[in-house]
Amino acid sequence: MLQDTQNVVSGISGADIATAAKYLAAGFVMAIGSIGSAIGEGLVAAHALDGIARQPEMEGALMRTMVVGQAITESTGIYSLVVAIILLLVV
Fold first, then answer.
1. Which of 14, 40, 70, 84 has the highest local Cβ count within 10 Å?
2. Is 1 strand, coil or helix?
3. DSSP type of residue 57
4. How many CB atoms lie within 10 A of CB 75?
5. Which residues have a Cβ under 8 Å from the Cβ of 71 and sit 6 or more positions away?
């Protein structure tokens, strides 16, 4: 049993470790970027709905502002996707 473990460990090269680290890093980048973006988008939508509930006559202006806020917040998720792709393809 111990010999089998030693054979497996001796068969792992530096390239294998670098590949594993690359995939883990890309996963962490997407996880953190997606969580932050989703929380931000939820807050933008919640506050816009609060404003519409308080002042229904401002619905048009609040919806435009909400859409712009959603787009800006989503850019963080897109940037994290770009970084993850760069990690996978270039590194």
1. 84
2. coil
3. G
4. 11
5. none
Q: Give the up-direction half-sphere exposure of residue 83: CA atoms within 13 A in the CB hemisphere.
A: 17
Q: Give the CATH number, domain containing residue 48.
A: 1.20.20.10
Q: Would you give the DSSP letter of residue 58?
A: G
At residue 15 the predicted structure's pLDDT band, cuts being 50, 70 and 90, is confident
CA 7 remoteness from chain centre:
38
The residue type of 87 is L
Instruction: Please give the pLDDT value at position 12.
Output: 76
Q: Could you tell me how many residues make up the chain?
A: 91
Does residue 22 form part of some domain?
no
Q: Which amino acid is at 26?
A: A
Give the count of domains, the chain.
1
What pTM was computed for the model?
0.71
Domain that residue 45 falls in: 35-91
- Domain membership flag for residue 55: yes
Domain presence at residue 12: no
